Amino acid sequence: MTHDDDHAVWLHERTSVTIVELERTSGLPRDLLRDLVDMGALEPLDASAAEWKFAADCVARLRRGAQLYRDLELETSALALALSFMERIEELEERLRALDAQLPRPPQRR
Amino acid sequence: MKYRDYYATLGVARDAAQADIKKAYRKLAQKFHPDVSKEKDAEAKFKEVAEAYQTLKDPEKRAAYDQLGSAYQPGQEFRPPPDWEQQFAQRDGGQSFSFDDLDLSDLFENLRAREAHGARARASIPIPGEDYEVAAQLPLEAALHGTSLDLNLSVPEVDAEGRVRRVAKTVTARIPKGATDGQRLRLRGQGGKGRNGGRDGDLFLDISLVAHPLFRPSGHDLFVDLPLAPWEAALGAQVEVPTLDGAVNVTIPPGTAAGRKLRIAKKGLPRPGGGEGDLYAIVQIVNPTVLGDRERELFAQLAESSRFDPRGHFKREAS
Q: Please, what are the averages of pLDDT over each run of 10 residues along chain B (319 residues)?
């Protein structure tokens, strides 16, 4: 089975997704996504654009958040808070990985 | 099908008010939600709690569940009342039909779907396929060249009659080069099949890189320790440094300090948009742990004649 590379998309900050795709991947309704933008938990790349686009690294975070929102029956403001914390955790994990990579391992005995 | 005591799962009485059921669920869900819980077996426990709540939060499903009575023990095999089986059989066009591979919760889900719309109405509504989310571990070499992964999933599948069951499924995911630790890949249309013209679901991969004995990734850069003998660091040297695609020669300048980072351009991991990260060799200065007679003699001579004071700043800063 082979697939075109068009079907495989890395979800990092250099690719973007539309609000329609965010609706689809998170299962959250558009009004709620707009509320999250108003609360600062989601940030469009260009807020003045006619159609909002978002950095694709928010897709996985939003999916996790949406799962919590449904499973724990969260309020929108709690979802916004959870998303902000998740983003912070991702940044810290990224820094931790970077620091860990630079940390020399003890020289091997030979 | 195994009987489950949903009331016991949520820790509420059989005559509990809907509000109390909700309260009990929320408390347990926060405790066991796999995204936030540190409890052991959190995921399995959360599934039990969610399954119980799915049925008990809906007064109709709860009433149907209550009809089963409380005569069953949890885990006991049971068959739904005869008239239920008959209802299902009618929907299946009179064919015999087994409940065996259904979960108890699937049964209520099916019952509900059946009541909500007739079989014909359901057949015409486009239903999107399920998204799958899977953690995948890749070796560094796979990030470098791309790879093909066989993923074994257990996925809910809805058959032509609208019944849900879990099936084992192997999905082959082609992963383009460009992966790094903690990155996610979305494979469009490779999740569950949509029905009645609904779109196919997506496959989301949560990627982590398997630890490599030499190279440590940071984003798309790689780090490698470069051990040098004291005289190599002091006098300078030409050394071979391994990279993911063969060794390269690196010039060590005289007087190289431990901890110094030597950048070897474009020998990191490929970036998804094109280009590569860099490889950083971090200098370590390593002494021989056992000295030969001649080595000891030379080090002793060096100690005697050198005026180098590595701790000179202690005196300056501490006084």
A: 84 92 91 84 88 89 81 67 56 46 63 52 73 90 90 76 75 88 90 85 92 93 96 97 94 95 95 91 94 96 94 85
* Contact between B224 and B267 (Cβ < 8 Å): no
Find the chain A residues whose C-beta atoms sit closer than 8 A to any C-beta of B: 1-3, 5-12, 14-15, 25, 57, 59-60, 63-64, 67-68, 71-73, 90, 93-94, 97-98, 100-102, 104-105, 107-110
State which CATH number among 3.40.50.620, 1.10.1520.10, 3.40.50.980, 2.60.260.20 fits the domain covering B215-305.
Answer: 2.60.260.20
Check whether A31 has a pLDDT greater than 90: yes
Query: Among A66, A62, A15, A108, which Cα is nearest to B214's?
Result: A108
Ranges for all domains in chain B classified under CATH 1.10.287.110? 6-122
Q: Please state, as a whole number, how many other Cβ atoms lie within 10 Å of the Cβ of residue A56.
A: 21
Partners of residue B284 in chain A, C-beta under 8 Å: 104, 107
Q: How confident is the model at residue A110 (pLDDT cuts 50, 70, 90)?
A: very low
Q: What is the third-level CATH fold of B132-209?
A: HSP40/DNAj peptide-binding domain (2.60.260)
CATH no., domain B6-122: 1.10.287.110
Single-letter amino acid, residue B194: G
pLDDT score for B163: 67
Residue B92: predicted pLDDT? 45
Q: Are B33 and A71 in contact (CB under 8 A)?
A: yes
- C-alpha B260/C-alpha B267 separation (Å) is 18
Judge: B216–A110 Cβ closer than 8 Å, yes or no.
Answer: no
Q: Which residues does chain B have within 8 Å of residue A104's beta carbon, measured at their own beta carbons?
A: 225, 259, 282, 284
Q: Does domain A3-102 have CATH number 1.10.1660.10?
A: yes
Q: Looking at CA atoms only, how far is residue B138 from chain A in angstroms?
A: 15
Query: What is the location of CATH 2.60.260.20 in chain B?
Result: 132-209, 215-305
pLDDT, tens digit (0-9, with 9 covering 90-100), for B169-222: 888 888 988 899 989 999 988 888 888 888 888 999 999 999 999 999 999 999
Q: Return the residue in A12, A79, A108 with the most chain B beta carbons within 10 A, the one to mutate for interface testing.
A: A12
